[in-house]
Amino acid sequence: MGNPVVEKSIKLALLIIKFCELLEEKKKYVIAKQLLKSGTSIGANIHEAQNAESRLDFIHKIKIALKELEETKYWLILCKESKTYPFDIQLENEINQLGLIMYKIVSTSKKNIKKE
Known about the structure:
This protein is mainly α. The protein has helices spanning 4-25, 29-49, 55-81, 89-115.
C-alpha cells in the first residue's frame, strides 16, 4: 500500500483536470486556468515533501500545498456561488478531506519536532 496522502492528491488532481475540462467546454477559461494551476499544485508539493531534507522542510512543503489547497477552495467557491458556472460536490468533498489530512500532518509533525 502506498502513501494515502500522495494517493489522495493524485485522485484530487485527476478530478480537478476533469472539472477544468468541463469549465473550458463552457468557455469559463479564466477560472479553469486558475483552478487547474492551484489544484494540481497541491499534489506536486505533497510529492516534493516526500523527499524533504528535514522535518522542518517537510512541514514547509506541506504548508505550501495547504496554501494551494486554500486557493483551490476559493476558485471552487466562486463556481459554487455563481449561477452561470458548473459545480462538483465530489470535488469539494475530496478537497475538504485532503485538507483535513494535511492539517493533521502539519500538527503531528510540529509536535514531533518538539519531542526531539
